[in-house]
Amino acid sequence: MPDRVDLPKTQFDRSYFDAGETRPGYFSTYSWDNYGQEARTTADLLFRWFSPRTVLDVGCAKGFLLRAIKDKGSAVQGVDISKYALSCADQEVRQRTFLLDVNREKLPFVDRTFDLVTCFGTVEFLTNYDHAVMEMARVLKDRGILVIKTAYRRADATDPRLICHRRGWWIQYFRSRDFEYLKAQSDELRGELLRVMAESVVNRGCTWRAKIGRHVYGLGYVGRKIAARLRSDAAMVVLVLRKNGSR
To answer: Any idea which architecture 36-152+161-191+233-243 has in CATH?
Structure first.
């Protein structure tokens, strides 16, 4: 692996989230209307399984997942490298966030603070993900839950994602760090996210992706999978993990 090179914070400004980009790895419009259902679906499953009281979202962006979890009554905190994204969060959520580079900085919390730590769409951008994972493990309570969503491949040479591994690689990686892989929950969360992604493609107006999505969506599970994969972020690994022992 090459030496760590810190990503410029300007990479995650408005041009990354809201400039109408259609390149893989970028967002056209990162809004609650477009992505809120994914946050709500994730929150619903996590609360059905674990009922966390304290939650940290690493790479929280505009705080959509924090908003969905806070609405269920949990105490939430978030960190992100993007000043722009944090400035767009709801005021109540924004007050619970920190501007921070998890490539190199420590999380501003004491050991064993959180029942649940989430990290969606972030690990693939980290050139020092070992440090980030160590920090997430440090602030997670023993037997606490870590949920990771990351990409397993880059779409093409313009894709800004740096670190892409298949599920098996990540499972071994986290097992070596004393985490237990929860397969049933991982598979269910990934399946539900693919369903929501497929629906989002189908409902987005008259774009060519929407037209193809509507054509294949009615073909059952395979059709929904095809529709979801019209989104570049559908090439995802989802890991629900339990921290074992003491750290």
So the answer is: 3-Layer(aba) Sandwich (3.40)
